[in-house]
Design a protein that fits this description.
The chain is built from 2 helices and 2 strands. With 70 residues, the chain is of the alpha+beta class. It has a two-stranded antiparallel sheet. The longest helix is centred in the middle third of the chain and has 11 residues. The chain is globular and about 35 Å long. It starts with 6 loop residues before the first strand and ends with a helix.
């Protein structure tokens, strides 16, 4: 990701065995950098991965709403 902008932080969600759950978050320097990442990687497949990547904007408000409805 750093080839496409300033990476502020990255988090990969993992299960109890420390294996990836297939979900991750990256915070970039600004919205334009996020859009560059989305344009480059959304719906792309990569060697060794069995599914396409789905990449989109996620705001703190959206995360709060998602977890509060559980």
């Amino acid at each position: 990701l750093s080839l496409h902008g300033n990476v502020i932080s990255v988090r990969i969600l993992r299960d109890q065995n420390k294996m990836s759950r297939g979900v991750g978050f990256a915070r970039m320097g600004d919205r334009d950098q996020c859009q560059t990442i989305i344009n480059r990687f959304h719906n792309q497949s990569f060697p060794g991965w069995c599914a396409e990547h789905h990449i989109f904007f996620c705001s703190v408000d959206l995360l709060r709403l998602s977890f509060s409805s559980r």
